[in-house]
Write the structure tokens for this entry.
Amino acid sequence: MDDSKKLTKRLAELGMIYLSEQEIDQMAEDVKDITKFLDKIKEADVKGVKEEKATIDYDSVRKDEAHPSMDREALLKNAVKKEGDSFSVAKVVE
């Protein structure tokens, strides 16, 4: 079994995704193609290319401003169980 097939099976296992043998074979081929493409990118001559430190133009991002929330009573109206002004849910973590 080649490395790309092993990697594909392991990723599917980690993601708890069931893949048929045919799907594993197809994805393994895709992994090979992606790896070839990345190897080709590594060969690119980048001498003289300025390194970028940030890729987000923070001046174009919206301002972080507070806005009024929804009405608490309206939100809690359909709650199955509530405690005071909050939803009450079953404990799921020990």
User: Anything to note?
Assistant: The radius of gyration is 25 Å. Residues 3-40 form one domain.
